[in-house]
Amino acid sequence: MGPESFRWSYLLLISLFYSYVSCSSVEQKIYIQLNNTVPCVRLLNATHQIGCQSSISGDTGVLHVFESEADLEWILTNGPHPPYMVVMEAVFFTRPTMMRMKNSSRVAGVAVISSSTAPSEGFSPHTRCPNQNSGVYGESYGPELANCNNTVWNPLGNNLSYEDFAFPIFFLENDNQTQVIRKCYEDHNVRVNGTAPEYPLCAMQLFSHMHAVTDTVTCMRRTDLQNSFSINPEKLCDPLNDFNVWASIRPLNSSIKGHKENESVVIAATRLDGRSFFWDVATSAEGTVSGIVTLLAAAQALYPVTQEAPPPRNIFFTFFQGEAFDYIGSSRMVYDMQNAKFVIDMDNVHSLLEIGQVGLRNGSNLWIHSDPVSRKNSSVNEEVDKLVKNMQSVASSLKLSVEEPGSSQALPPSSFQRFLRARPIPGLVLADHQSAFINRYYESLYDTPAYLNLTYPPDLSPEEQLEYETEAAKSLSEVATLVARSLYTQAGGDDQFLSNITADTKTVAKLLYGFLIKSNNSWFSSLLPPEALGRGSILGTGAPQYYIGLRLDNTVKSVTRFVQFILANMTGTVLSLNQSQCQNPNSVPDQSKDLYSYSWISGPVSANGTAESYCVRASVRLSKALSPAFELLEYGSREYSTWTESRWKTIGARIFLVASPELEMMTLGVGVAVLIVSLLVTYFISSKAELLFSSTREAPATTY
Amino acid sequence: MTAAVFFGCAFIAFGPAFSLFIFTIARDPLRVIILIAGAFFWLLSLLLSSLVWFIAMKASNAEDTKVQTGLLIFGVFFSVLLQEVFRFAYYRLLRKANEGLAAISDEETSPISVQQMAYVAGLGFGIISGAFSMINILSDTLGPGTVGIFGDSQYYFITSALMTLAITLLQIFWGVVFFDGCEKSRWWVIAVVVCLHLLVSGLSLLNPLYEGSLPPVYAITVLMAVWAFFASGGSLHNLSLLFTRKILFVLQLICFVKM
């Protein structure tokens, strides 16, 4: 007996003689659980549901590996064992294929295996016109520019992320387990010369049942009903939410909300989130990280100069969360400003500079987009022209070229649009594209560090990679310098200090490494507070993902935390306070929690393994990024984002064999035969027991 | 579809035990009590052997497959011996109870014969051991998967059910023969029963070589059935009597129809 058969008999015996064994032992012989799976989940807005779901007990289908277009015919028409569970490489995950499967009842689900090579023709499962209904353009504001009439920003968008699939779709990391799946398929399911494979067949089951249906209005109504009547209420969906991060060059008193006298701020904004077709898989290198890194590096470059020679206007850095889902973060900040719930209000806003996608600029070209509708107002136009001139003069000193794309072109999808909805303020959006996005993988799986040309020479250790200045880092640090200098002049700073403002390429390199390759690195951990490290560390193992998700217990998404503490370290002062003073600074003279936030930072680990912790005082704060629709309880709002994520109980995937119907029927037949025969025989013997066992006693007690 | 496997396996494993119960046990309260008590004694033996197993598992190195193999074989044989010890204990208890039953009975004899007690006690052992061996497996027959992804036989479920059926029947026959041996003080009979029990359990170690385990187990079952038939007062004479009656009856019927 081999070890395998031995394990088998062990199993049988255990179940024969020992009840002390969990029932999973047979299960382990039947199922292979797949780890490293990411589902596509259901999201809802005011009118629709999108995403995927399985039935409540999971969807099962015979495995079929999609290797060529011919397989599609087999799956959808010829194959004799429907429904099929389709396993495909990411290259086959295209709209035509998925839509044909969507309309077929012969597909039980799809598992997409990640692949390192991106399709050269581009792939974006997002819409062609991102956030078209929540931006500024509409019937009352530049109707000729509404719905991307003028420029289609994401021409490769195929809308796949916004389809509603009735079957589960999972994403599998390409690892040993996909090899197991392939092996199972090759052993059992492969067609020989076009004839159907024989039972037992390899099958897969996917669990991703979603609790919410129809739309946000319905699911919030049901949740509220449960909350008011049930003792044990169960939520069906939660609004997407997290936090925006903001900081200002001069501290703003956060205990006083509303208008600040004599305060005029220049807002420097970027977005903090992205998405892809699948839940919590969003590397968003070009889409999001290029902006985050640029703005952080610009903030760091600006800080020392603004302390020496403070410009007349304040500079306000902000990172908006949830912008991929109808501008959750920016709409909330604008809403708070309008309702005197924020440290400043709209009157305090002088102008705005937003960093869009800047990682893929072609040569030295950058483009500054502005809003043609508000520029019809001469005073706004004047200001915008000034901003453009400032920026162009800064750019020319840096040997960059910054151009305007044309006066009639609308703004690309940007947080600035939410500010324009409230008031025509002057502002610019800096991006690497003239009209349509250069990014061919907008909000997709392929928007990876590799796409951003973030490549390291081989045989570098992680620490060396962290420090390595890639081409991408050099390019982004130029952009960061441009942004920092433009902000300084925009804030009214003196031109003579401009040459002191230069973004550090090394910092940009480290930021790129931390935000795109591996957040668990020595530099990130030295900038975070000790409680964020250690057990339950927010650093995670791989690259951070940029899907906003939702916060159930007021925790903060790890990416938001990274930005918060990196910004605090870059724009803060180190104080000589001990840990308890740092955590409670109001007891220390001259320190105020209203003006500053105080964080106790781990500090770099020295050679002997101890970390030098210190206290940082900065003006960095978090502000809620929950759509105002959920504050106002307007779940059907057309004004604000209404995106919610459905709740679910189990997400799982497993493969196993299914027996032939003949074998199953044979088992049942044998069972029924055994039952009937035993009933007849027992009846016969018990009725003749007296006769059969007569020698036992003269008069048996039995009365049969 | 997999509900078919569930019901098929359940019928195979528990169909005979079920029909025996409804036709021979259910109508007599005394038999029900003896059956339940028998099941309880088997459970006690299981409790003890699982205790020993638990300690052995904790004490041994889980990585060492050789030790684990040895432990498994030891565990099987230990458990079998314990079951037989408890069968004997149950026999002693029933003998005592039988005297008491005879004392309070109107007819001065016990209302139940030793052979009947042996059969009922054996069925008690059989039902409970069958339940314990099969229920875990039954819960997994509901599917959707079947055994085999690691290259195991796809007949696992049906063979497990057949094995359970054999074990249930064997427990009945062993009970009858064992009690008969005790009654007549023929110790070799008890020894043979224990040895056969050890043999059957040992044969299941051959799995998944079902050709190696199932046919011998069924051969032993048939043999034990014959032995148990004679031990409980059956004889060839009775059998022929039964069949001649049957034939006579059939002949009469034919004559009646012809007339």
UniProtKB/TrEMBL annotation, chain A:
The chain crosses the membrane at residues 665-685. Its main location: membrane. Residues 1-23 form the signal peptide. Residues 39-212 form the Nicastrin small lobe domain. It is a single-pass type I membrane protein. GO terms for biological process: Notch receptor processing; Notch signaling pathway; protein processing. GO terms for cellular component: plasma membrane. Keywords: Glycoprotein, Membrane, Notch signaling pathway, Signal, Transmembrane, Transmembrane helix. InterPro entries: Ncstrn_small, Nicastrin. Pfam families: Ncstrn_small, Nicastrin. It is found in: Membrane. It comes from the Eukaryota. Belongs to the nicastrin family. This is Nicastrin. The gene is NCSTN.
TrEMBL record, chain B:
GO terms for cellular component: gamma-secretase complex. GO terms for biological process: Notch signaling pathway; protein processing. It is a multi-pass membrane protein. Coiled coil: none annotated. Its main location: membrane. InterPro entries: Aph-1. The chain crosses the membrane at residues 6-25, 32-55, 67-86, 117-135, 155-179, 186-206, 218-243. It comes from the Eukaryota. Pfam families: Aph-1. Keywords: Membrane, Notch signaling pathway, Transmembrane, Transmembrane helix. It is found in: Membrane. Component of the gamma-secretase complex. Belongs to the APH-1 family. Potential subunit of the gamma-secretase complex, an endoprotease complex that catalyzes the intramembrane cleavage of integral proteins such as Notch receptors. This is Gamma-secretase subunit APH-1. The lineage of its organism: Eukaryota, Metazoa, Chordata, Craniata, Vertebrata.
